[in-house]
Amino acid sequence: MAFLLDGNPLAVDVAFSHNNVNYPANWLRLSSAQEKKNLGITEVADAAVFDPRFYKDDGTAKTLDDVNATDENGDLVKDANGNQVVIFGVKSILKAKEKDTASSLLAKYDWYVVRKAETSKDIPSAIQTYRQNVRTACDTREKEIDACADTAALITLYSSKEDGTPNMTQYPIDPNS
Predict the structure, then answer these.
(1) What is the pLDDT of residues 54-113, one digit of tens each?
(2) Cβ neighbours for 133, distance < 8 A, ≥ 6 positions apart
(3) Residue 142 CB partners (closer than 8 Å, separation 6+)
(4) In angstroms, rounded to a whole number, what is the distance separating the alpha carbons of residues 70 and 77?
(5) N or C: which end of the chain has fewer CB within 10 A?
(6) How many whole angstroms separate alpha carbon 72 and alpha carbon 145?
(7) How many helices (DSSP H) and strands (DSSP E) are in the chain?
(8) What is the pLDDT of residues 24-46, one digit of tens each?
């Protein structure tokens, strides 16, 4: 909650003065609702905070799917090569992040693949299995994203159940952790 005095915000845990009276930093926390009211302090709800992955600053949902860019006249926008400019939607952005995550998980063990190509030395089976499971998890997560029909479904997907278990498929545990 936020507090206002004479239309001006009061910060919690910050001393303030009113009508030549100095109030300590902890006064807002320790005072009763009636004491605040008597002084003319009003309580206002904090501004809503929206998850920037899914919402614009004003609280409206971002577009889920990609759209063709248009100019102020509604004409399609082309790049320098004549290709249509596309504005990526939330789903494309989230799937790109999944690919980045999978790439970073795989990168730790890429040297095994290079060693195999250069020397024919086998990749340990635990590493092979892990790498395949990372790729499978990434693919499954992308499909889960695509299956969401609206913003609420995406938020649910990226949330956890009441018992704390995630709704979304999880990446495998690193075999060397």
Answers:
(1) 999 889 999 999 999 999 999 999 999 999 999 999 999 999 999 999 999 999 999 999
(2) 171, 172
(3) 95, 98, 99
(4) 5
(5) C
(6) 31
(7) 6, 7
(8) 999 999 999 999 999 999 998 87
**8 A C-beta contact, residue 134 and residue 105:** yes
- Cβ contact 137:147 at 8 Å: no
Query: Rounded to whole angstroms, how far apart are CA atoms 10 and 41?
Result: 9
pLDDT, tens digit, for every residue of 116-161? 999 999 999 999 999 999 999 999 999 999 999 999 999 999 999 9
Q: Which amino acid is at 45?
A: A
